[in-house]
Amino acid sequence: VPFTTGVDHVCNYTGGELVLAHPMTLSPSAKYYEYGRVMMAALYAVADHVNEVRCGVLVKGKRYKLKIETYDDVSSKTHVVTIIDRLLAESNVDFFLAGYASSRTRLYSGKLFEANKLLIAGGASSQDVFANKSTVFGTLGKSWRKMPNALTAIKEAGGKSVLSLHEESAVGCNGIDNTLAQLGLEHTLDKEIENEPNMTSMLGHLKEIQDMDNPPDAILFCTYLTGCESYI
To answer: Any idea where the Leucine-binding protein domain is (predicted)?
Structure first.
């Protein structure tokens, strides 16, 4: 069907549509809503550009329009798995896109690899999402590369010990032990804290740290923006 683009040409999608489906957090009250909202806007902007400006994608002489299907996962691990299982069983999805975060994407990247489906995991950086899965690709840098500069700054400032607090799936604190050892810094404790900590809960954690016999020289917070904004 001819499609008028508004850029002074008409596109004929002779091959039909390519369906790209993905779970994404759409509920404003859910944990990863802000990430999901921004990621989804970017995905649809790219699809609009490909469809309207480039007249879709050209495959073996035929043009295909990109169609994105989005399903609300409410940041739930259970919902994510249910969505993927249903799409694999009941729909004709050509490619898959991942939402946020690594803790959710790792639950189904293996399933899609086994089904020989291409997955672009733009919101994941943990290597277990991608390892030994040749059909799974990412766009973010490796999570273990995020921390060395901060740890080096602590060392250069005279610090000798570090304590880390992390939210579930906040991968910034993952894999820092090797870097700490290389810098000669002691990792006194790594503690998982509640999701979306607020000022009150963080003050409680800080009070516990202050009361330690040997409190650390520095504290690493590996948390998400929603919580961080309330206590930084």
So the answer is: 32-183
